[in-house]
From TrEMBL, chain A:
The keyword Nucleus applies. Its EC number is 2.7.11.1. This is EKC/KEOPS complex subunit BUD32. Residues 19-272 form the Protein kinase domain. It is an enzyme of class 2 (transferase).
Automatic annotation (TrEMBL), chain B:
The lineage of its organism: Eukaryota, Fungi, Dikarya, Ascomycota, Pezizomycotina. Component of the EKC/KEOPS complex that is required for the formation of a threonylcarbamoyl group on adenosine at position 37 (t(6)A37) in tRNAs that read codons beginning with adenine. The complex is probably involved in the transfer of the threonylcarbamoyl moiety of threonylcarbamoyl-AMP (TC-AMP) to the N6 group of A37. CGI121 acts as an allosteric effector that regulates the t(6)A activity of the complex. The EKC/KEOPS complex also promotes both telomere uncapping and telomere elongation. The complex is required for efficient recruitment of transcriptional coactivators. This is EKC/KEOPS complex subunit CGI121. One of its GO terms (cellular component) is nucleus. One of its GO terms (biological process) is tRNA threonylcarbamoyladenosine modification. The keyword Kinase applies. Keywords: Kinase, Nucleus, Transferase, tRNA processing. It is found in: Nucleus. Coiled coil: none annotated. The keyword Nucleus applies. One of its GO terms (molecular function) is kinase activity. InterPro entries: CGI121/TPRKB, CGI121/TPRKB_sf. It holds the Pfam family CGI-121.
Length: 272, 198
């Protein structure tokens, strides 16, 4: 059971305050994610904790944990300064293995897309160009994803694990309604599911690179992840690439490279 | 009494944290305070902060939180929690620089923020802390309550921009709305503090 893990020491000072107790959100291969608060209950935060690994030599373990948290924090700092939508770092203690991040409201893009697709009447039908017209809100979301990934790549950062689960849809403060006015509550709820600002999360595998190759592989990972998570919307992925292509000068050459990567897969040939 | 007792989430409960803000403190007072600090008089263990380099409560409390965490993990880089609060406001590990920028300057600083952490093994009461402060800062106007608006009245934005390296940052330059820009500066400053020295 997830709840049986002991809390990281930084969260054990509760109940010194009247705040809500921390709760475990998810567990990954390397770390755990808790929801807690920074300073006061009005500032919810996500605490990413990398517990010590008993199977590693303690000195090596401490060094790896520290380096990885610092690397992730640096990437987030760079993104924030460049205006790429990512959570801010509120506090961290790399030696103790934790990082406190801004809490992003909303749901993952994956969930939003699934709500949208699930509400479609002919459930087994793949979406093709013919009924694109009904897909405007989803297509708009695809374009926002492409733009955000483009902005990220422009700063010289490669995410390393782009999936629709590693993107959040932060609700807009004012609700936008699309030009094709939907009628009925169900349709409105469906449309709301794909609205919001795309915020990239989980930079645990991020690296810095400005090469077409690395950028193309990053897009390829997203393309594959998208196709397996949302097979019915696979055809709409082209809108992500189209928007990406407009974000920076070298983006079109990344898309050319992407064609090569598709031919051979994620791993580069060991020759040459 | 105008001493505010702070509560900060996820900090140990064996301490009380007090906050005060004095406006228009005269040069004689800051010079006298500096003498006490240079003499390392233990009775004057406070974090004295120049309010002009502080953005908001969140900004200030983040530094206190980080300093308390250093106490809890026994990783203080300065002699005590009060000097650590001043260091925690800095995005770099240069301690002298942090004292110069966020600590007060004798004869120059007029708006002074005071933070006092009293651990429970210490007998000092809130009344005693306040009486001691009032005695040694006789000239300033006491600000109460210490709201974001009150803190913002003292903020010198050109200093903040310089200290947190916020000039020419794309994320700020694209924001037109002034209030939103200040929120983003607070966000980046807190982040700079969290990543101190990286």
């Amino acid at each position: 059971m997830a709840t049986e893990f002991p809390l990281p020491p930084v969260l054990t000072y509760y109940p010194s305050s009247s705040s809500t107790p921390p709760s475990l959100i998810t567990q990954g291969a390397e770390g755990r994610l808790y929801k807690s608060t920074h300073l006061a209950s009005s500032r919810p935060c996500a605490l990413k904790y990398r517990p010590p690994k008993p199977y590693r030599h303690p000195i090596l373990d401490a060094r790896l944990t520290k380096a990885r948290i610092q690397a992730e924090a640096k990437v987030l700092d760079r993104c924030c300064r460049e205006g790429v939508p990512v959570p801010a770092v509120y506090a961290m203690d790399a030696a103790a293995g934790w990082m406190m991040l801004e809490w992003i409201e909303g749901q993952p893009v994956r969930a939003g897309i699934n709500v949208w697709l699930g509400a479609r009447p002919e459930t087994d039908e793949a979406i093709d160009a013919a009924n694109d017209a009904h897909q405007t809100p989803l297509i708009n979301l695809m374009e926002r994803i492409g733009t955000v990934v483009g902005a990220l790549h422009l700063t010289g950062i490669i995410h390393g694990d782009l999936t629709t689960s590693n993107m959040m849809l932060q609700p807009w403060k004012t609700t936008h309604t699309s030009q094709q006015q939907t009628n009925g509550e169900e349709a409105a709820a469906k449309e709301a599911a794909v609205q919001g600002d795309v915020v990239l999360i989980d930079f645990g595998l991020a690296t810095t690179s400005s090469s077409d190759e690395d950028r193309a592989v990053d897009l390829y990972v997203l393309e594959r992840a998208f196709a397996s998570t949302h097979p019915r919307a696979e055809k709409l992925f082209e809108h992500v690439l189209e928007a990406y292509g407009k974000t920076f000068k070298k983006a079109p050459s990344v898309l050319v490279k992407l064609a090569d990567v598709r031919m051979r897969g994620r791993k580069r040939s060991m020759l040459g | 009494m105008a001493l505010e007792k702070l509560t900060i989430d996820n900090t140990p409960s064996n301490q009380n944290i007090y906050l005060a803000l004095f406006r228009d403190v005269d040069a004689d007072t800051t010079q006298a305070l500096q003498k006490q600090l240079l003499a390392r008089n233990p009775a004057f263990e406070y974090a004295f902060i120049d309010a002009s380099s502080i953005i908001s409560r969140v900004h200030l409390l983040s530094a206190i939180y980080n300093a308390l965490n250093a106490v809890a993990t026994n990783t203080l880089q300065t002699p005590n929690v009060h000097s650590e609060i001043v260091l925690s406001l800095s995005p770099s590990n240069n301690i002298a620089d942090a004292y110069r920028r966020w600590g007060f300057a004798a004869g120059k600083t007029t708006d002074l923020i005071v933070v006092k952490v009293v651990f429970h093994d210490n007998e000092q009461t809130e009344e005693q802390v306040w009486a001691h402060l009032k005695e040694h800062i006789p000239t300033g106007t006491v600000v109460d309550p210490i709201t974001d608006e009150e803190i913002a009245k003292s903020t010198d934005w050109s200093k903040v921009r310089k200290y947190y390296k916020l000039n020419g940052v794309p994320a700020l330059d694209r924001i037109k709305d002034d209030a939103e820009k200040k929120r983003e500066m607070e966000r980046l400053a807190v982040m700079g503090m969290a990543l101190r020295g990286l």
